[in-house]
Amino acid sequence: MNQVRCFFTFLLSTPEPINSGKMTIEDKQVAINTEFASQVLFLSQQLECSERYIAALLDEVLKENPGVDSVTSLELTVELFHLRRRHLVDTLRYLVDATKAADSNKDNKIHVRLARYFVTELIPASSGQDGNFTLVTRIWKQIEQLNALVARTDSAKRGAASNTVAPTGHGSSLT
Which of 54, 58, 84, 171 could disulfide-pair with 33, CB 3.0 to 4.6 Å? Predict the structure, then answer.
């Protein structure tokens, strides 16, 4: 549950400039080195995601794999990023399935409560105030854009060179 809370916190929080040399990761202000910052910038651009969220993922990878080289840390971070996205999509799918089940079986109180929550709290009736969209609206838009992302990834994979060059800097973890 803590990972879900952190994910939503990253989506809703104000970004911190990565070039400042400091960043908040897991509610702690930490100093970051130039290699870490360049890896975060590179991945956030490639994955079209916030620097803060990528920094947390990269930090987690480096904590779980101390001494890993920078190319492997980038690959593991991308893998973790997609795993988390997959978990989020699976969770939404389970909620949709429970909502459908509630329509056919009103006696199952759990499905009915999940369906009520999903419809009233998560599915937006319209865009938010001032044209801002709710978190779920942004997630649904991301799901709709998955075909383009998969096509772009497939194209990049087929056209990729055999060796990866990671952004350069000093050190391979937080300082």
Answer: 171
Residue 74: CA count within 13 A, CB half-sphere: 22
Say what the pLDDT of residue 4 is: 47
Token duo for residue 55: 């920094």
Q: Are 84 and 60 in contact (CB under 8 A)?
A: no
Do residues 19 and 61 lie in contact, with contact meaning Cβ atoms separated by under 8 Å?
A: no
- Residue 174 is given by DSSP the state -
User: Would you put residue 30 in left (φ > 0), alpha (ψ -120 to 50) or beta?
Assistant: beta
* Whole-number Å distance between alpha carbons of 86 and 138: 15
Mean pLDDT confidence for 111-119: 86
Condensed to tens digits (0 to 9), the pLDDT of residues 125-138 reads: 555 555 566 666 67
The H or E element containing residue 24 is: strand 22-25
Note the pLDDT of residue 56: 93
Find all residues with CB under 8 Å of 132, minimum gap 6, and list them.
none
Name the residue type at position 61.
V
Average pLDDT over residues 30-45: 89
